[in-house]
Amino acid sequence: MEIDWIIAIGLFLILVAWSFVYYMGFFAITPDLGAGVQGISGKVMNYLEIEAYDTPITYDSTENGTRVLYTDFTWPDYSSNSTKIFSGNQSLPCMIFGNRVYWQADVGIGENKFVMRYHTQNTTLNCDSSFPLVNTTQVIPWAAEKDTLVSQDRIDQMFATDFRAFAAGLGISQDFRIEIETDSSTTDYGSAVLPGYNIYVKENPGMTENNEKVTVRVLTW
Question: What is the value of pTM for the model shown?
Fold first, then answer.
């Protein structure tokens, strides 16, 4: 009697296990798309982001007016072309001769703050303005601060590239879409979002090398 009970329990467990395996065959195992958007977003941002260096500069003025300031600086190889001078978010007229950069600025009484920004990506000369070098004043830069920025040049290169070629270059086979949002516009790039699917989104806020706010939004489904 006890042996019959043990056999019955064993047969029951075998039946339960077989039923579980049988019915699981009707359900497809899908990848975690929430994790997938993280990976795709990471590859996109690795392409779009660059390392930049911001060098703070201050100038104390005793009066209001327009000044031509300059500083001597030794750039890493080929990075002087990328140099820009900012006052707040405004890019200022500037010129580079050798290891010296000049810029023209409207200054006020007291401390005036500027930022010299450069990066190591190949680019055409940014400091290509023209203004008289009269009554110039030398200022001393502070230590450079490293930052990660979204490259507007790389955004433009991405938009100029066929999407499938761009995705293949990043090693991405899954459908996805990129939205580049600035204060003035939103531009789409990539596959059309299919209706009826769950949409997974990863937002990457940042700044461009031109000191403009930008959000890179990656969508998958």
Answer: 0.77
